[in-house]
Amino acid sequence: MELQIQNISKTYAGGTRALNNVSLTIQPGMFGLLGPNGAGKSTLMRTIATLQEADSGTIRLGGIDVLGQKHETRKVLGYLPQEFGVYPHVSAEELLDHFAMLKGITNRSQRRDLVRRLLQQTNLYDHRKKKLGGFSGGMRQRFGIATVLLGDPKLIIVDEPTAGLDPEERTRFHNLLSEIGEQVVVILSTHIVDDVSDLCRDMAIINKGEVIFADQPFHAILMLQGKIWKDIIKKHELADYQAAYHVISSRLFAGETQVTVYSETQPGPTFHAAEPTLEDVYFWAINQSKEEV
Ligand code: ADP
């Protein structure tokens, strides 16, 4: 099942244009939607998840008209929002069992098997008796995925799932996502480039409500091959460098300032060639889109 987003626009009541003619085609597998805070990612995710209306445009999931057939969409959708409440005084096992019951699995042993499988899959089996209120951020996120998987969805949306997780929890969460079947469309919305480079075969970058780049990470990195140069400079030299070169990013590196420059040829004798990364692609695309305005 393919997800087709066509010309989606949304302006909020206050006048913020959150989405401007967004079109994307998303195949089964992991898809990364990358963009800075305020880019419009959550607005797009909530629209696909039928939680809010778009002003115009269409979204199709296989044969389903997402915006017109909300009920049909919700049957095949698993949505894990940025923030979700859990019942703090209930255990993971009890709540999953309850959700399975709501889903219509009335046979007790069938339900028990399913709940056990999900708890094992999300690495929470040892914590199954623990109250959800005592769960860490990472455990909560994994519990969220367990509830999402319970519905056997064809489309899974996870919005900023790793924000606030420590590196170990993040890796665990990545491993869990990577095990979700290849037949399911999984959209990972994030401002963390590494989430996408670790997991996604395909991606898009959005900024200020517009898709500014859409390609496979692998292709995107190839495109910058031989064009990324780095130099270590003094902090006060940055403005001069920005004036002289196409600086796509700068950051502190071992207490000094490292600039990354986009150039077809070596920009200067002190620059050294660097292997492009997805982070370079990201900053390059954001810079390009600023220049086009
Ligand atoms: P992201 O998820 O990429 O951080 P959002 O979709 O949350 O971006 O926000 C896009 C823009 O829309 C931002 O400028 C944000 O302030 C604005 N926005 C988001 N939700 C609302 C809302 N309910 N009402 C008004 N403006 C909103």
Automatic annotation (TrEMBL):
Gene Ontology terms for molecular function: ATP binding; ATP hydrolysis activity
All residue ranges annotated as the ABC transporter domain in the record: 3-233
Residues passing through the membrane, by range: none
Pfam families the UniProt entry points to: ABC_tran (PF00005)
Superkingdom, taxonomy of origin: Bacteria
Gene3D superfamilies named among the record's database cross-references: P-loop containing nucleotide triphosphate hydrolases (3.40.50.300)
PROSITE patterns named among the record's database cross-references: ABC_TRANSPORTER_1, ABC_TRANSPORTER_2
Keywords: ATP-binding, Nucleotide-binding, Transport
InterPro entries the UniProt entry points to: AAA+_ATPase, ABC_transporter-like_ATP-bd, ABC_transporter-like_CS, P-loop_NTPase
UniProt xrefs under CDD domains: ABC_drug_resistance_like (cd03264)
Sequence similarity: Belongs to the ABC transporter superfamily.
PANTHER family given in the database record: ABC TRANSPORTER, ATP-BINDING PROTEIN
Name of this protein: ABC transporter, ATP-binding protein
Organism: Candidatus Moduliflexus flocculans
